[in-house]
Amino acid sequence: AQTVTQSQPEMSVQEAETVTLSCTYDTSESDYYLFWYKQPPSRQMILVIRQEAYKQQNATENRFSVNFQKAAKSFSLKISDSQLGDAAMYFCAYRSLGGGSRLTFGEGTQLTVNP
Amino acid sequence: DSGVTQTPKHLITATGQRVTLRCSPRSGDLSVYWYQQSLDQGLQFLIQYYNGEERAKGNILERFSAQQFPDLHSELNLSSLELGDSALYFCASSVVGLVQDTQYFGPGTRLTVL
Questions:
Q1: What is the mean pLDDT of residues A26-51?
Q2: ∠B48-B57-B34 over CA atoms, to 5°?
Q3: pLDDT beyond 70 at A56
Q4: In this structure, how many other beta carbons lie within 10 angstroms of the beta carbon of residue A57?
């Protein structure tokens, strides 16, 4: 079974600065999908970014980008020009190509943005 | 707003009781997923339906059951409730339930078992 680990329970960043959230995963599969979801205090789960394992190019969505290291099984999220609205719990998630389309989530990283 | 709706938003009940959580997927989405978020277990996949049929099952207890109706809405039934069932229950939907689909989450139902 696949596992996802987020080793940073909490992180903080100053407004306008850059922060990187870490995620590692364990899998024996060669093709899969990786995601970062954001959960603000409203508790809504919001997709931030996704990465297909077969793509070598790192995904980017505006101020959010990932550093995908397939060999190291590492998938970090970089938030540039941090804004107060970025404060949330961030979850890394894995989706296998087989066994349905379930998402396997990490434990989450609580991000605080300081003004 | 993801377009996925869940009712009720909050539910408070007693141990031993039975509750039903309801989910309406985004317009056009055929697949529905249920997840449980608790302090002990984190975010866990429970079950997936596609066009009325069960497609995948995760860590769903035997006391829990779900179904997807012809109009594509889904219900999660929780029975013989225990204190440990207190959690946030999310429904998500995607177009066809394929691995490349994006799952859009509803706002969740917060269940408190007293």
A1: 92
A2: 40
A3: yes
A4: 8
